[in-house]
Amino acid sequence: MDLAPGTRIDTDLPGRLDRLPWSRWHWRVVIALGVTWILDGLEVTLVGAVASVLGEPDTLHLSEQQIGLAASAYLFGAILGALIFGRATDRLGRKKLFLVTLGVYLGATLCTALSLNFWMFALFRSLTGAGIGGEYAAINSAIDELLPARVRGRADLAINGTYWLGTAIGAASTLVLLNPHVVPHSIGWRLAFGLGALLGGSILIVRKHLPESPRWLLLHGRVAEAQASVEEIERHVAESAPLPPAPPPKPLIVKGSVTFTQIARVLLQRHLRRTFLGLSLMVAQAFAYNAIFFTYALVLARFYGIPGDQVGLYLLPFAAGNLLGPLALGHLFDVVGRRPMIAITYGVSGILLAVTGVLFERGLLTATTQTALWSGVFFVASAAASSAYLTVSELFPVELRGMAIALFYAVGTATGGLAAPAIFGRLIQSGSRANVMIGYLIGAAFMIGAALVAAVIGVDAEGKSLEELNPDV
What we know:
Elements: E1 8-11, H1 13-18, H2 24-50, H3 64-92, H4 94-113, H5 118-146, H6 152-161, H7 163-177, H8 185-207, H9 214-219, H10 223-238, E2 250-253, H11 260-270, H12 272-293, H13 296-304, H14 311-329, H15 332-335, H16 338-361, H17 367-394, H18 401-429, H19 433-457, H20 466-469
């Protein structure tokens, strides 16, 4: 029988999850849920790579304006999907939503590949974005609630960093699928989008076997189901490693579904400092990343004369730097600590971005050295950006975690995500290296500003359980 909201219980279930040794079961969780970031990286890369192809008469024959509108439709869908599905994952559960959101993505991506005109393409790009945006809320909630506290930092950073594995897959696939000597453009662009549906479909089967978050079940008074879920997880983990003793029970209050008023009270009163911290990190990384990544091909073409069909070659090392950064630096967020590492990675990446911008303005770089420097800058910046998602997913209560992640993602995408490409596109169109440098310096200022915010009001969350970070008040 479900317990009513406000009921106080003593339970050892969260502690039993946190004390588990890393096992094959945890790897299954990481692979099944972490694919979200790979899919997003794949989608963004594919759209940028096929943009010129979609303007050809034997494809969709889109204008440059229509291609830009389709990109905006994807981002708009992602924002709307995050808000809708973020609210739903708090009310209906993590498992239901991470199956639904992946299903939305699969269907929309497949339909994108079958689009016959601009309106179909834009509609299905919007729905694809909705699936991905919803994934962020449901997936980041589930991952933090299932993984042990002692490795939450490095695991989150590694998972978020796999966005760039998706970018690498997308860049490599377009070198083949958009090569007219291998596949005609009229078919190749459709196969490129079909690749995302194939990857997502293979993961959907694995996700069906993951349990509902025991923490979410407890907060909704479904104690028996939470107990059964933890026991199932322990059985899987015990197959590969002995289990440490269970910790003593701790008090917990059943919350149930919270209202928008309660959400606002937590974000704007109880945790206002954390809200400001999360917004600062999310907006800064969104602006810096979208400014450079979405205009990367334009810089290569206008200032270095790199043709469109060779852009993928320059994206691969850029993606490699972004992927390796969180993998190499992630453990430091658990060992050195959240506050110092977030401040350091944001600050260092901002300084390196400014230095690279100055070198670019003075004409001291080639396409190769520009790419090498960007790879180094975003080796650090990728860890910083991933830590922003870690911050907003671990610092807010379980009962509103999905909605909190969705709100921060939406604000970051709507401000930095939408504004940065437009600003940089105009600066690049001017043909002035000095103007482009100003844009890079703005991005650097955002990152350094966020570093200062993290240094002052960051939270020392390393090694702490979600319940310890958000005690009942």
